[in-house]
Amino acid sequence: MTMLTPRTPTKLAPPGKGRRERKAAELESRTRLAGERLAGFSARPGAQVLQDLSATRNGLTHAEAALRLERHGANVVAHERAPRWWVQLAKAFRNPFIAVLVFLAAVMWWQDPADPGVVILSVMVGISGLLRFWQEFRSGRAADALKKLVTTTCAVQRRAGGAGPTTLEVPMDQVVPGDVVKLAAGDLIPADLRLITSKDLMVGQAALSGESLPVAKADAPPRSAGRTPSSEDLGQFETTDPVEADNLCLMGTSVTSGTATGVVVATGADTYFGSMAGSLVGERPQTNFDNGVRKVSFLLIRFMLVMVPVVFAINGLTKGDWDEAFLFGIAVAVGLTPEMLPMVVSANLARGAVAMSRHKVVVKRLNAIQNLGAMDVLCTDKTGTLTEDRIVLDRYLDVHGNEDDEVLEYGYLNSHFQTGLKNLMDQAVINRVNEAEEVVVDARFSMVDEIPFDFARRRMSVVLGRNSIVGDLGRSEHVMITKGAVEEVLDLCTHMTDRGRKVELTDQLRRHVTRIAEDNNRQGLRVLAVATRTMSAPRDTYSVADEDGLTLVGFLAFLDPPKADAARALQALADKGIAVKVVTGDNDLVAARVCADVGIDVGHVVLGAEIDALDDTALRALAARTTVFAKVNPVQKARIVRALQADGHTVGFLGDGINDAAALRDADVGISVDTAVDIAKESAEIILLEKDLTVLEQGVIQGRTTFGNTIKYIKMTASSNFGNVFSVLVASAFIPFQPMLAIMLLVQNLVYDIAQLATPWDRMDEEYLRRPRNWDAKGIGRFMVCIGPISSIFDIAMFVIMWNVFGANSEAEQALFQSGWFIEGLLSQTLIVHMIRTRKIPFIQSRASWPVMVMTVLAVLTGLYLPFSPLAGSLGFVPLPAGYFPWLIGVLLAYCTLTQLLKTLYIRRFGTWL
Question: Contact, 746 vs 324, CB < 8 A?
Fold first, then answer.
């Protein structure tokens, strides 16, 4: 027997060159091996499969099942577990800036254990880590609560020794290879099964394949292409993909209608589903947020490593007191470091998570909020996102492609009177007919017999008798109504109905009606043919042999309709700079039709098979210009995501199936829904309680607001701190005493940073929210260098004023000098927040939120009060003369005016502000 290979790529990007690539190679290898095993089981007759598994149609004995459970282990797949709370707590403190703050606090404690700066820094670190830990811990528990298991047991046939078989409800994790499982409508497939018997079996495989419509399954070995099927060979062709094998039912799929019996051929990690899941646990790849924070953190650390030694050296050389210079250098390091950054970032993200929860969004990982705002490409499946995830009868056509109520009536009669389990298309036909018409139909017809659907015929027929009604006495003929696959029904037709007349179905007319069906297929519709036959000699029973000499009435065409608001939601995302790419396992015709209906420019639809033939460079170019990908498997979806990321995009992926899990983990932000399979929810970072792009749009806005407030704090604080240190550098070179005591510098930073705790509650300008935002370490460095020194100009101006106007030009008057600069520095830092927070004119064109305004006022009042407070002596302050304050107002007004002028020039030169 030849083992077949599943449809997985043979080219990976590039194998073994990184953790992500190794994971991709592992996933490809595992799915290939699982597919080969399953293809082998599919190719063999059922009796041979049972023999190979040492099993029988009557099932295993209880003793055999126990031994196999011990040998093969529980029927569970690998899945990601939330870390223990103490591990999660430790990870919350894993941040470059927290490491810097801890280092500075340790040095300060070593120098002076009683230094209040140690407590201040420790509190900042503690609040930042605990805030992040609590929000992620709480979100993780909420996500776990979303897991709703449809069932935990399945019907298994087992024997007690020599006794006959009995059907038991067995927990799914105790199913073993060789078990005989009985399936019925609504059942989850507990493991990978090779069918032994089946009747009208339809299986929903959307979680694995992405195909919205259920597929027929049957207990038949495949036949080679070109071989004529026998009566016992029901007709599937050999396939290289276990998902497409008609006699295999795979773990993770579900039965929509019909019944079947199958033998378990693989459990747990050996299943096709398990082969994917095993490669999806462990450390996640670095996202856009992670890379951005790391770059910005090290940029600021580099500034600190350059400036602090310079300040230390100048102070030591000019003052001669190296101990004092060392302490002042440490204080400068704290002053230059945005020590509240971890806490502000955590507060920003936590507030974003709370805000998003009001829009029915659960955030599992806080970093995902910023990634959502930075996202410029969204890859999504179509089913349930662009469509309503339900099947409707879209049109009912006569043989010329025109709508015809008679076709609907015959289709309804067939669906209404059949006694078997009605599939989704039967239900769609019934739903199209209103209740009043149903009453009339029931009065006019009665059921005589039916010929059920089977996989070989791909059709089903009902035979109805016309009930005698007034004016219709004496009519006793029976009418057979057949509905099924177009090719199979057409083969049985000798005539067709043409505008009310019965005409012979010539070869020319046969080609004509076939073209009508194919045209609808190309529009992404699932087409069924409807035909009738009037029985002139009624009888009580009918058989397959009577399905002959039929008259074609017309066609029924079905689709999963687009959501009414999908087009608007897509346009809203486009307006915010997000390109939507549809990545689906469904066929290309259906995908193209749905995408066109919701306003997506489809262009050339790329199939999964095309992706396999491309290396990474070629795939990057293809992904950039392609909007719709169809018939793609899990590995191909993940490759598409990585190709887009390699092209510089921040990629989001929205999916809910097993086949989406790999792409969800590789994306910068993985998004799933509460109705998704567990592995998809585990792989995602954001879970939508409604599968709705409108909800996602709100999340994008919140993400950009969160990022905007974070970058706002970084630029405000980093530029101000850089300006302050530059001022200290100048003062240290020309002033014979310390321009500000270390404790003053720490207090100034503490008051300013507390004021900035309101930043997460600030609003962003509408213009800022219109396009994706990303970390730009180079831009932050440029902003610090260009904007930071502005404050130094006015700091130096205040030095000159204090030195010359108020006589603070000796060591005896240094306290007055230091107090004057403390107030000017704190007020300028605090007020300049309103200049930097917007590219517009502050207070006139753009106003901060009320929490920011309140904290600004409190910070200003605190700065003005401290030199006059009871704490002044212990902090080294002295009261300032009344004449100081007009000078202060003039300096602050000049500072704001110059900043606004330079802001305009900066925007004109670099095209950006925040």
Answer: no
